[in-house]
Design brief:
single chain, alpha/beta, TIM Barrel, two-stranded antiparallel ribbon, 9 strands, binds coproporphyrinogen I
Length: 346
């Protein structure tokens, strides 16, 4: 079977393969005991930039669950580290920056760095991907990057936050600095995606996890144009998936004027409704409620069947969760979902 016939790639083209493709955001990670074993003694970002660890961790969920895609084990802040920004991932918390980027002068200092540094420093990424794709065979690898708004939500705040107030304030208080920052982040994300696609990723996903915290007007004015820049460099080379949490009201905007082949929806929007909002030219991805991974199997099974049923309203459907796998998920439940989705007629 040539690569392009893989169910994930067919679904991204708008076809309905005999088997509905399924993969899980954060499938590589703490829900897997084999991941926890490998990570002992290695900091998160060091693991991302170690080709042995990154390739092995990427492959673990594919071997275990039989999912239809691998997602590259990395993080949205890895290209910032490659560009020379001081960032760590603090266990149990997330990305934390030594120096938050808050003033016009901070933005000027950051954006003086050349996004080409990302490509120059990315050989561990390219090496990991070469190993992964050699072992994956026909199963495609999805490369990814963080969207400019979601990256800025961490960078301006200095770490994780609930409402991303500082980034949203900067948009209105100093729009010139905001656009300069977001454009730089878009070029950094684009460089990271380019490295992954050159090395063998067969699709790319842009994570704008926190886009749902923006009003539709602010999303259109301050975020979407930069997300288009981030994806522009790989557009036409690989199919593109665009995802965010809480994006019900802006789902049509998440198509980025047709740049995205698929749009991911979280669990709050019924998929048939999402399909109606997205129209006939976009594949839907989603949207099993991560909370239901803890429910008794018959409850979860009925929910997965409902997601599959509603997904039939779209031109094509890629099954996924509405957000990432929670760390305390029983991995056998994920395997069971894959078996169920594959056993159902598409
Ligand atoms: O200690 C650990 O094991 C670290 C936990 C962890 C992991 C496994 C983090 C810290 N990042 C990752 C890997 C990761 N991050 C992947 C790998 C591949 C896979 O999906 O299996 C991906 C795609 C990401 C992307 C990412 N990082 C996003 C977008 C996706 C999403 O979940 O919305 C975001 C928002 C981040 C930031 C981040 N990195 C790590 C954490 C805990 C967070 C979130 C912090 C917060 O709550 O704001």
């Amino acid at each position: 079977m040539p690569h392009t016939d893989a169910p994930l790639l067919r679904a991204l083209r708008g076809e309905r393969p005999e088997r509905t493709p399924v993969w899980f955001m954060r499938q590589a990670g703490r829900s897997l005991p084999e991941y926890r074993d490998l990570r002992v003694g290695t900091r998160m970002l060091d693991a991302c930039l170690d080709p042995d660890l990154a390739s092995e961790i990427t492959l673990q969920p594919v071997r275990r669950h039989g999912v239809d895609a691998a997602i590259f084990f990395s993080d949205i802040v890895v290209p910032l580290r490659l560009a020379g920004v001081q960032v760590e991932i603090v266990p149990g918390r997330g990305p934390v920056f030594d120096e938050p980027v808050r003033s016009a002068a901070d933005v000027d200092a950051l954006t003086a760095r050349d996004p080409a540094e990302v490509s120059a420093a990315a050989s561990p990424v390219a090496e990991a991907i070469a190993r992964i794709t050699a072992e994956l065979g026909d199963t495609p690898l999805i490369g990814f990057a963080g969207a400019p708004f979601t990256l800025a939500a961490y960078l301006v705040e200095g770490g994780p936050s609930k409402e991303h107030l500082r980034a949203r304030a900067m948009m209105h208080a100093d729009p010139v600095s905001w656009h300069r920052l977001a454009d730089w982040l878009a070029r950094v994300a684009a460089a990271f995606l380019d490295v992954q696609v050159r090395a063998g990723a067969r699709a790319a996903q842009l994570f704008d996890s926190w886009a749902g915290s923006l009003s539709p007007e602010d999303y259109r004015a301050f975020a979407a144009p930069h997300s288009r820049t981030a994806l522009g460099g790989v557009h036409g080379r690989v199919p593109l998936i665009h995802f965010g949490v809480g994006t019900g009201p802006i789902l049509p905007d998440m198509r980025l004027h047709g740049l995205a082949d698929a749009v991911g929806a979280d669990w709050r929007v019924p998929l048939d409704q999402a399909a109606g909002m997205l129209g006939p030219d976009t594949t839907v991805q989603g949207n099993i409620d991560p909370a239901l991974l803890q429910a008794p199997w018959p409850v979860l099974e009925a929910h997965v069947r409902d997601v599959l049923h509603r997904g039939r309203a779209a031109r094509a459907h890629i099954v996924n969760l509405g957000h990432g796998v929670p760390p305390d998920t029983d991995p056998d439940v994920l395997t069971r979902i894959v078996e169920l989705v594959h056993a159902e007629a598409s």
